[in-house]
Amino acid sequence: MSIDKTIKARRTIRKYKQERIDMKFLKDLVDVARLAPSAANRQPLEYIIVNKTDMLSKVFDTLKWAGYIKPFGTPEEGERPVAYIVVLINKDRAGSMAEHDVGASVQNILLSAWEKGIGSCWIGSVDRRALREILNIPDRYEIDCVIALGYAAQEAIEEDRDDTIRYYLDDQGVLHVPKRPLDNILHIDGFEDDKNDK
After folding, report:
1. Alpha-carbon torsion angle 50, 105, 29, 156, nearest 10
2. Dmax over Cα atoms in the chain, in whole Å?
3. pLDDT given at position 42
4. What are the CB-based long-range contacts (under 8 Å, 24+) for 159-165?
5. Which residues of the chain are under the pLDDT cut of 70?
6. Angle between helices 98-115 and 23-34 (to 10 degrees)
């Protein structure tokens, strides 16, 4: 699949087949993450792969899922993630742009996973205190986010809409994700003189 097709097809997935992901591939995901751009090349990001069954359930309990479609966005038993990657910021190395590094590295993970048929959910709503204790994370690390992973067991589609930001499930369980149309967000050579913008 071309990079353009991968980008355009990728959507967040919150329900997963219970097929394990090979550790080599999980390590490959971290490898593509570490090669993302880094402000001033400070490279403050580090990662924890979680894939043991008992640890998966503990990490799951620290996460909040899909507020717009609550409680239907929370995976049930038998459809939960089969792996997580926890993204950490090493505060000893971080500059003021570390959050930009996170965005670039996470996007690499999401796209690389999708290309191989693995769905993902980038989660920022995390009980960081509990997760720190579960994974024994030292204080010098800031827990930025958690990426849930698994082979997709749901369909999610994009639709051009600018009247809402709320994603929703239809009667067949397909997740519809509104994305602002290109014409609504693209400005060429600046903004046109539009009195509605004044």
Report:
1. 90
2. 59
3. 95
4. none
5. 193-198
6. 140
Pairing of strands 175-179, 168-169: antiparallel
Give the total residue count for the chain: 198
Distance CA 101, CA 42 (A): 9
In contact, 169 and 175? CB cutoff 8 Å: yes
How would you list the strands of the sheet with 168-169, edge to edge? 156-160, 175-179, 168-169
- How far, in Å, CA of 117 to CA of 113, rounded? 7
Q: How is residue 81 annotated by DSSP?
A: -
The backbone region for 40, taken as left when phi is positive above 0, alpha when psi lies in -120 to 50, beta otherwise, is left
DSSP label at 110? H
How confident is the model over 35-89, as pLDDT tens digits?
A: 999 999 999 999 999 999 999 999 999 999 988 888 888 999 999 999 999 999 9
What's the CA gap between 104 and 48, in Å, rounded?
17
Write down the pTM of the prediction.
0.92
Angstrom distance (rounded) from CA 65 to CA 198:
39
From CA 23, how far away is CA 44, in angstroms rounded? 23
Alpha-carbon span 143 to 4, nearest angstrom: 30
Residues linked to residue 156 through DSSP beta bridges, in sequence order: 175
